[in-house]
Amino acid sequence: MARQNPIISGLYAITEARLMPEPVFLAQAEAALRGGARILQYRDKGDVVAEAPRRRRQAGALRELCAQYNALFVVNDDPLLAQAVGAPALHVGAEDAPLAALRVQLGRAILIGVSCYGSVRQAQEAAAQGADYVAFGSFFASPSKPQAPVISMAVLTAARAVMDLPIVAIGGITEASGGALLAAGADALAVISGIFGANDVEGAARRFTALFGDRKE
C-alpha cells in the first residue's frame, strides 16, 4: 500500500536543550543535517512566556537552516510558535488540541504529527482526524523521557498492518537498535541523545542515516 506523505522518512533529529547549549545550538543542529537528517524537530520545554524571545529566535533560525538542507522543520507541542515562524510541520501529543481545531488555527498546508505512545487505536483515531503521520514510543529507556513506559516493537507491526500513514519510532533508539525498528514497520527514527549526545554529531547522524540504505518510498 502506498504511504501518504513520504517526506516523513529517514532520520528524524530532535533538539534537546540540555545537550545543546545556545552557543553551539545551531552548529549542532546543522551537523545533524549535514549527517543526513531529513527531519528536524524543535523541542524545547522552556517557559513559553519567559523564554519566548529565545524560543522564537531559535525556531526561526532552525526553519531557515532546514530550508537550506531541504529538510522538514517541525515544531513540538507549540502551535502558536509554529504559526509565528511559519513552520511547515507541528508535532503534538494525542491528548492535545483536537486536530480539527489545529487545522482551523494553522490551515491545511501544515503537516501535523501525533504521538500515540503504544496505542494503535489512538493512531487510527489520529489518522481519521487528519494526522499526516503518527509516532510510537518509547521503545527503549530514554534519558530525555525517563518516566516514559517502554513498549514492544510489535506495536509497529500491528500499526503497519492497518494504516498507511508514515510511522515514526522514538525513545532511546541507538544505531544498534534502529534497524530492528525499521524492519518492524517504522518509516522514520526519531533520535535525541543518540545524535546530540554524541561527541561527533555529524558522524552519529551519518551512521543512523546509513540504516535506511537506499530504501525508496
CATH homolog superfamily: Aldolase class I
User: CATH top level?
Assistant: Alpha Beta
The profile of the biggest β sheet is: 8 strands, parallel, barrel
User: What count of structural domains?
Assistant: 1
Enzyme class: transferase
Keywords: Magnesium, Metal-binding, Thiamine biosynthesis, Transferase
Pfam families: TMP-TENI
Pathway: Cofactor biosynthesis; thiamine diphosphate biosynthesis; thiamine phosphate from 4-amino-2-methyl-5-diphosphomethylpyrimidine and 4-methyl-5-(2-phosphoethyl)-thiazole: step 1/1
Detail the topology: elements first, then pairings.
Elements: E1 10-14, H1 22-34, E2 39-42, H2 52-68, E3 72-76, H3 79-85, E4 89-93, H4 99-106, E5 111-115, H5 120-128, E6 133-136, H6 154-162, E7 167-170, H7 175-184, E8 188-191, H8 193-196, H9 201-210
Parallel strand pairs: 1-2, 1-8, 2-3, 3-4, 4-5, 5-6, 6-7, 7-8
Helix pairs in contact: 1-2, 1-9, 2-3
Write up what this structure looks like.
The protein is an alpha/beta fold. The chain has a single domain, classed as Alpha-Beta Barrel (TIM Barrel). 40% of the residues lie in helices and 17% in strands. α2 links the parallel β2 and β3. The mean pLDDT is 92.
